[in-house]
Amino acid sequence: MVEPLRSGDPRRIGPYRLEGRLGAGGMGQVFLGTSQAGRKVAVKLILPELANTPQFRDRFKREVDAARQVGGFHTAQVVDADPDAASPWLVTAFIPGPTLQRTVTERGPLAPDAVLRLGAGLAEGLAAIHRCGLVHRDLKPGNVIMAEDGPRIIDFGVAHTPGDTMTRTGSVIGTYAYMSPEQIRAEAVSPASDVFALGSVLAFAATGRSPFDATSVPAIVHRVTSGDPVLDGLPGELDELVAACLAKAPADRPSTEDVLRRLSVTGPGTAPATAPVVPAKPAKSPTRRSVLFGGVAAATAAVAVPAYFFLRPESWASSGDGPGGGPGNGSGESKDPTQPVARLTGHTSQVECLAFSPNGRTLASGDFNGSVRLWDVATRDAITTFKGQGHTGWVMSLAFSRDGQTLFSGGFDKTLKGWDVRSGMPRDIASYDAQFDSVGCLALSPDGTTLAVGVGSRVELMDPSTGRRTVTFTGHTGSMRGVAFSPDGKSVVSVAADTRVNSAVQLWDAGTGSGIKAFTVTDGKTFSSVTFSPDGRTVAAGGSGVHLWDAATGNPVATLTDAHPYLESAVYRPDKAVIAGAGGVREPNVQDGTGKTVSLWDVATRQVTTTLKATMPESRRDTSISKLAFSPDGKLLAAAVNQVGASDEKAASIQLWKLP
Known about the structure:
- The protein is α+β, with helices and mostly antiparallel strands.
- The radius of gyration is 28 Å and the shape is elongated.
- Helix content is 15%, strand content 32%.
């Protein structure tokens, strides 16, 4: 589909007049152009950050020369290029027709015989590319044109010589769900990398999804590098071939010639031959869990993936010891609604904080040893661990940006960091020097433009993209324990471990920083958490019970109590008038069993309606739940469950409950 040119687009590149936008690739923008003789062409303009790199220009020039030699019926011929231009450009023949991505999205999966013919055409095109000493490196449904006389492989902008990682500023180029494991890890690539992509493309053509689809980019990467492909729905003649193409080790994959022998077409409209693929150990059969969760999300858009995140695939560990018995606990869920549906393990010290991404697909957790982990909520797999260049100790607080691409973390080491969720690289946002300036709590405003940071005994509001402070709230006399924005973003409530009675919970004007009111307490207890009700009318703080105040008047409304001696966390459910509270032992020698439970209160009746029960691998009673978090839709509750004083993977877990 051709889009109109935008105001900032060039109108001419070299001798070619530009008429519209065709799309964007890994290295630049692609335009529809017209030659001086009136022929339609595709013109790719290289990204400025690549153009400014002399090493890239030299490589680009070599690859253009090699790409000109690629012929055959199944590629778009390179007809012109200027590697020395201020913004280098590349021109190929324009092939009319929809992409495979658009064809399948609009019309559904192809018929089996059409997929076989597609595979033969693509294998022939790749063979032509490989004979010229190139690897395409970005074969995907969006780079396959369904022309009237057969498929065409387009976008030679990322083609390069075998053995080169072709990275830029620490990045790899390509699309996650169609990249080979070695390419994701920024290792040397070979023609076998294109064969892996071919297997994924054929699976997409036959089923409408990549065999490595998942609910987030890191989860897709985990599945490509370590998981099994989901191949259910493939016709029998394709299943063995695609499985062979998707072998994790390059040496175990068939060559393009092997694929062609398997899919050779003897004449127009004839079915491909059925000779077996010569080499290749087939990839593992899909597990019950991967079949169950493989189709939850749509394919991911093309973006660059920084290589740092993917250098150590073993960093993604399956949780493996939950009630389902399988990795990530994706199967065998309990039918008892009071029991967790999953138990995620891998942290080697107490889990201290949790946060769901805005779309609810990813859960983040931080522990006492300075590790931050990401989890795929649907598959319950551990996606990755952020550790390098991170906090030197206790991770105290977490919050996602509104787009879910940045994870903010605050630590006992007096630093505030922003992690790029896609790359795993941290950005230092702020650091503090005072003796008690640990970053104890975080909250993002509803519009995503302001981050509230509880540091020391004050709250700072800042621009999360720059770290510039705009407002500072002072008045607490103890370390910050909780902070939250009102639903309209106009006010902020905070709680600290204050030594002064009647001032532990404060309400502030988010615009001016002035104090609005202090919420009174009568029992002299400190609080560990604070939040607004979804309608903004009530403030709730967890401590010795859940204390409720009218947000407008500051008057006490109620105190919700249960068997817990102290509530470390109390949170409102987003979709209902329900509060979840949990806590338990504060010292190892206090063993009353309440540390394994979560209470759900109906706010209207002020009664506990449900008691959720955490599970531990041993029947120990010295268990404490340090943090609770609801998914954005309120249908899933996560809890950080820790055995007090223990320091191994069995002692710390994140447990999930499904709620009606």
